[in-house]
């Protein structure tokens, strides 16, 4: 059974939007701290962390060396790592880097295990550098760069299933309506009989007869039979991309400075559905509850960097990347498709939806700063490099200019949940004539203060690569593999023993291939 989406333009008060989205998040397990933080709705710090927890990006050469390029330069990835590296270009260059990614996800839910493999292909980098001779005696070279980079990829798919003898998602809706203290007349008023759209997911579930009022007050699920066979799917897609204009200068073949203006674009989609069927059902054969979240945003940042040659073979580099003030617009909607038993209740249709809700807000990304040291091996046989990257997660900010109190709650939530992190990147390259062999290692610090509650930890990622290069073109390939563990909760009820979370293990392999030519 598939649920078709219906999208209509609609605006609502900010308070109602936040409350509705808070229910959406609680239902479909975007990991949230709002319960601990007592926020009025969703904790958007989790979204900011998802969007800005990116690691190794750029060309296949840079990825193969673990991203340790702060002090090296001479690669188009310099524009997003340290724009001073543009000053090392002695020739103009064009390059493109397709990225292939494959993920294997294992989901454990109620003593059952499901596995799913997904893959995607994207452009990791494309751009050109235009190198020019300098003017005067000290300015040896200058270079302009125009490029696009994918900073973060959100593609992720997994499925879970199990036979539940303790609860149904209808119990969640019944408890939610009871907690609101709302009567059945007001619940009915939250459904527009003309548009056939509900104001929120609770009113939606009530119109689908998922729960009934009790004589003494409150509500109860209309289908009480067990077991409840549950099958859920989660699909995430989208990316964080950045258009770059960079400029670098070479002074005396010793000091290099540069800057980049970056225009970021955010596109993120999350589709979730939960199918419940009742082998012993008295009211329902089954139903599907689905949600769709669409997020789009844009923002601007500035990068500045410097590289200096301590000796002919040793370089020291540093860069700083300003926070990005990202303006975001999100739209979310919910729907239900139900199959009732004969002679149970009458309904005009078997598919109902909520009004699509829009919400505008702003995320300020973490400040990033890099320092790196590189050393060339004797006879230019290769190079080794090491970087330390500071990421100021505790300085992230979420703001709604129309609601100062909500914005302050979000800010306190960020400061309560996250800490600044240090990432260490190391890599090396050996040269054999025109051939290159590379390897790297990333230590990615955990930004969470309470990592045990989120089953998170610092990560160690190895990278490998190879390539060929001559006076006219180059080709490089890189490979890395990462693993992570996380959890997803389809819904909650008041008794913690009556619902389950999905335990997820995901391993992802990434292959980058760069092609470039000099002109």
Task: Describe, in plain words, how this protein is organized in 3D.
The protein has a single domain, classed as Outer membrane protein transport protein (OMPP1/FadL/TodX) (Porin). By secondary structure, it is mainly beta. It has nine helices and 23 strands. Residues 1-40 have low confidence and may be disordered. The protein has helices at 14-28, 34-37, 45-52, 60-64, 78-81, 169-180, 184-189, 201-207, 404-417, and strands spanning 93-109, 112-133, 139-153, 156-164, 191-192, 197-198, 211-213, 219-221, 228-251, 255-277, 284-309, 314-321, 325-340, 351-354, 357-364, 368-376, 382-391, 397-399, 421-432, 435-444, 459-469, 473-488, 502-518. Helix 6 (169-180) packs across helix 8. A hairpin with a 2-residue loop joins strand 1 and strand 2. A 14-stranded antiparallel beta barrel has the order 1-2-3-9-10-11-12-16-17-19-20-21-22-23. Strands 7-8 form a two-stranded antiparallel sheet. It is elongated, with a radius of gyration of 26 Å.
């Amino acid at each position: 059974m598939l649920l078709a989406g219906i999208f209509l333009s609609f605006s609502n008060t900010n308070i109602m939007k936040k409350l509705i989205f808070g229910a959406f998040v609680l239902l479909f397990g975007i990991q949230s701290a709002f319960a601990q933080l007592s926020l009025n709705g969703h904790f958007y710090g989790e979204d900011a962390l998802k969007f800005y927890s990116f690691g190794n990006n750029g060309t296949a050469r840079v990825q193969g060396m673990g991203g340790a390029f702060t002090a090296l330069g001479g690669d188009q990835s310099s524009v997003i790592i340290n724009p001073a590296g543009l000053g090392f270009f002695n020739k103009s260059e064009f390059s493109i880097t397709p990225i292939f990614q494959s993920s294997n996800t294992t989901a454990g839910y109620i003593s059952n295990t499901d596995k799913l493999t997904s893959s995607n292909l994207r452009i990791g980098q494309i751009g050109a550098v235009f190198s020019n001779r300098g003017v005067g005696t000290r300015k040896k070279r200058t270079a302009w760069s125009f490029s696009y980079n994918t900073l973060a990829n959100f593609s992720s798919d997994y499925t879970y299933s199990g036979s539940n003898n303790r609860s149904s998602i209808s119990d969640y809706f019944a408890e939610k309506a009871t907690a609101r203290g709302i009567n059945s007349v007001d619940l009915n008023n939250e459904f527009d009989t003309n548009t056939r759209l509900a104001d929120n997911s609770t009113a939606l579930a009530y119109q689908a007869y998922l729960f009934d009022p009790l004589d003494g007050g409150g509500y109860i699920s209309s289908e009480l039979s067990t077991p409840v066979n549950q099958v859920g799917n989660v699909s995430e897609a989208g990316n964080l991309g950045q258009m770059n204009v960079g400029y670098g200068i070479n002074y005396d073949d010793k000091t290099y400075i540069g800057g980049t203006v970056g225009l970021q674009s955010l596109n993120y989609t999350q589709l979730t559905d939960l199918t419940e069927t009742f082998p012993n059902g008295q009211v329902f054969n089954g139903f599907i509850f689905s949600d769709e979240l669409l997020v789009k945003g844009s923002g601007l940042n500035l990068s500045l960097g410097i590289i200096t040659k301590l000796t002919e073979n040793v370089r020291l580099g540093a860069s700083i990347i300003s926070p990005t003030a990202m303006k975001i617009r999100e739209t979310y909607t919910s729907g239900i498709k139900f199959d009732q038993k004969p002679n149970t209740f009458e309904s005009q249709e078997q598919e109902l939806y909520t009004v699509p809700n829009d919400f505008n807000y702003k995320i300020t990304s973490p400040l990033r700063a890099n320092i790196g040291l590189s050393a060339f091996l004797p006879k230019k046989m290769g190079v080794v490099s090491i970087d330390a990257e500071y990421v100021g997660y505790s300085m992230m900010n979420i703001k709604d200019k129309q609601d100062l109190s909500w914005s302050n709650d979000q800010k306190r939530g960020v400061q309560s949940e996250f800490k600044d992190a240090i990432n260490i990147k190391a890599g090396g390259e050996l040269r054999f004539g025109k051939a290159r062999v590379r390897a790297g290692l990333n230590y990615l610090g955990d930004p969470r203060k309470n990592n045990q509650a989120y089953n998170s930890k610092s990560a160690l990622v190895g990278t490998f690569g190879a390539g060929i290069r001559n006076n006219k073109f180059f080709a490089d390939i890189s490979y890395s593999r990462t693993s992570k563990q996380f959890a997803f909760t389809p819904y909650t009820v008041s008794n913690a023993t009556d619902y389950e979370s999905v335990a997820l293990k995901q391993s992802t392999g990434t292959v980058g291939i760069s092609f470039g030519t000099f002109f």
